Amino acid sequence: MTQVDEREALAPRTILEHAELLHFTHPDGPLPQAGRPYPDEDRYRALPRTERRTAESNQAIVDLLTSAYRAEPSPARARFPLAEALRSVVAPSRGHGPLLEAVASFDPRWRHRVGRHLACTGTERGQVLVGLILLAGAAGPDDVLPVRLLGLLGRHFGESAIRVLRQIPGTADDLIWLAERSDPMNHARAVEALCTLAEPATFAWLLREGVRPDGPSVVHARAVAETVDLAALLNADTPMARCPSSTDGDGKVPFLRSGGEGEVVAQVGRVLVALMGHEAGSAELRRYAGAAAALAGFAGAAGRMRPDLDRYALVVTVLADLHAGQAATLDLPEGEPAAMRATLDGLLDEPAWAAVRADAEQSADPMSRRRAQWALATRINCRQTPLPAGSATAEETEMTRPDSGRSTFAIRVHVGDPGRNGGVETRVFIDGRPIIREAFDKGPSEQPEYLLGPEHRLRAADEPHEVRLAEADCTEGCCGALYVTVERRGGEVVWRDWRDPDRTGLDLPVFRFAAADYDAEVHRAENDHSWEWPDRTVARLLRARLRADPDLLGRWDCDLGWISTWPRDCGRVQVSYLHPRRPALDDEPWLQFVAVLDVPPGEPDAVADELVRQLAETDPRRPEWLSGGSAEAAEALGFDWPPARRP
Questions:
Q1: Residue 354 φ/ψ, nearest 5 degrees
Q2: 620: helix, strand or coil
Q3: Residue 610's CB: how many other CB atoms inside 10 A?
Q4: Strand ranges of the sheet holding 409-415, from the earlier edge strand across to the other edge
Q5: What is the rounded end-to-end Cα distance, in angstroms, of the chain?
Q6: CA distance 406 to 430
Q7: What are phi and psi of 216, to 5 degrees?
Q8: Is the separation of the CB atoms in 406 and 430 below 8 Å?
Q9: Which of 114, 235, 324, 459 might form a disulfide with 412, Cβ 3.0–4.6 angstroms?
Q10: In whole angstroms, how far apart are CA 290 and each of 199, 220, 256?
Q11: Predicted confidence (pLDDT) per residue in 373-404, tens digit
Q12: pTM given for the model
């Protein structure tokens, strides 16, 4: 053969062959670029792009499937005119509910025969996708291998492949196989499927790999906790928990021994920490029925873990949540929260654990040093700051006074673990309950600079004003926000008229607070910067200086935007600003710049002064800091638009 003939002979002819070849060369992880380009790339790009919505595309496919089924419903027939018809279809990769519903009444034998043919021999992605849809609920053990190979092509086929596999008995191991080689979204879908199947043989993997803190699988943390039964895993009255539903002959959970008791304790802790974060959803720890028992088990067993920085940070995170997070609001026996905090705090003072933080403080790795600083500051804050009223035991806090009808009010600033991409949020407790997290699950509470900064948004005045307490991660315009109206009425402060623009019928009551107590708590929180780390302090001072003298940036025809630094940012502050300074018209060209400034060691005031000097004395409109606007605006204003941003 010629070289051209040889290449053509070796090239995959079907999408399944393409997946099989890529898996052969990359057997252990996600495929590069999710397996793209597919063999049909040139033809797919040539298909006419219409503006049809997903619903209309689905209906077109339903019509094709219905016609094909009516024309040849007999499973014995072997002609496949449907395959040719699907060559010109741009099948949507998601939103397949109408398709699944439409084919549910078809003869399963017909669905299996046609679906397998399309999935295994399809050369166009529309053919393969429809084949997987037909196989859902009709596939058998012989279909597992091709289906899971197609699932490696995650963007188009991962969701459908997981749907097929979860309905075939005995495929839990195949779902794990696919999850370990999938992108984060399909890993999360596989985790959801495994939690639904709840096969004991998968519990070890679910506990170890089911929750990735920075991935979408975190939303399944409660399902993982309920499936593996965290509460039963760490039972204080035995060396390690005995779970009758998933034990070997001696009553011991097999996977506990294989991973070591300390490792299992750490895995339980990681799931608990995921439940504490807003990424898992609204008040997920509170919604987990076994939360109290799991926390008690973790506190009692934490000493079995081998100390390292990740586990030190894990213990600090649980300790902080017991102090002023969801864990602090659980219905625990009197004195138990204080006992758990004391146990965990005492553990961190033991020589082996204390050495971990000491070593991290001296590490050459900036992130290790940053985490050590965060851990120390968080522990000090837990020791020195009183608990929110009503959230702990009666002897520790003042409970709500039922005779007055007034609620208690407390504000706490939470700083997350820098090693977990932790954020900063303002937590508001009413009657000891984390009201924002319970009412809104699409994003974190607002940052303290927003609620407690110079605008004094939480202060109450006779004139009512509305305050945004939280915003969706994807912005308010996409998925909403949480608002409340704050008003002073004589000796009371009232929170009323709660609303979320993305949701109707938000069912939250009117809360009344004693004005003197409310004012004192807001004043305390506004002036408490003990939660800050040096970079954040510099950011606050820099913000104050630039706002006090707008001409510092104004000399470059720029207006200040936001200034921030995050727990994961080591020695950096980001400053955003717009150019020109004040666009006169909506259609006037504008550009956004974001300066990334190194924060040198030193006193925060002196460091802030130096950063101001850098911005004021040198033109901050640098090409490398250009981050927003358009190529047209850049050209109109005399700047070069970055090549990487060109379409």
A1: -60, -35
A2: coil
A3: 15
A4: 409-415, 424-430, 433-434
A5: 41
A6: 10
A7: -65, -15
A8: no
A9: 324
A10: 19, 15, 19
A11: 999 999 998 887 665 544 433 333 333 444 46
A12: 0.83
